[in-house]
Structure to design on (121 residues):
């Protein structure tokens, strides 16, 4: 091999052709042309992101107006129409107490305490 920096693959497979390892930038700094290119690319990305966000905002506004119109037209609540149109999850984020859970809990606690009349099963 040559005096270049060897990779682990080239050391363990000397008979196979190996692409030389990439060296580091000698100065570690970007040239003025590279800085200008990156700045131009960043400004293009920002413009595209802003245009996309503007289109999304227009869609949201028209969607909200359409939901309100449908809700008023059919005498439904805005929340009901929104849940149908937006296909959001119907699950709640907080588990509220229910009568069934309270009764089950009470029966279980009584059975654990060994009280008569409590059925386990």
């Amino acid at each position: 091999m040559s005096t270049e920096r060897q990779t682990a693959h080239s050391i363990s497979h000397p008979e196979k052709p190996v692409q030389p390892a990439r060296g580091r930038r000698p100065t570690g700094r970007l040239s003025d042309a590279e800085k200008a290119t990156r700045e131009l690319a960043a400004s293009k990305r920002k413009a595209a992101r802003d245009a996309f966000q503007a289109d999304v905002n227009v869609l949201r506004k028209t969607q909200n107006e359409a939901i309100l119109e449908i809700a008023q037209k059919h005498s439904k609540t805005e929340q009901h129409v929104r849940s149908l149109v937006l296909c959001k999850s119907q699950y709640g984020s907080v588990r509220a107490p229910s009568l069934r859970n309270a009764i089950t809990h009470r029966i279980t606690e009584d059975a654990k305490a060994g009280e008569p009349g409590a059925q386990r099963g």
Summary: Helices lie at 8-12, 32-73, 78-86, 99-113. The chain has a mean pLDDT of 84. The first helix runs from residue 8 to 12.
